[in-house]
Specification:
about 100 residues; alpha+beta; 4-stranded antiparallel beta sheet; 4 strands; about 55% helix
Length: about 100
Amino acid sequence: MLKFQFFRQPNSKPNEFTYLEMGSTTFLKEKKLLLAEGFEVDVEPIFATNIEQAMEKYRSGFLNDVDEYRNSDVAAGLFTFITETIKSLRQGLKGSPST
């Protein structure tokens, strides 16, 4: 299993990130360069069999955190509840047979 470290610049968009494979012989040198360019370590290292799997884990963790943050506010949680209810009702209407 490989170990990846993800980096982002402060206030960057969620899809603007880079990563390093921590087992690489150049990891420490590359990390130092990224930090000098203003990047910050974004999350704990991610263990994965390949970079695609690591990026999937990274993105899903970020999206889960965003959802939790958004729903932590009562008004935002209510908004999410209402929009999801409307989506469900629309799905139900599309799937119901006409009489």
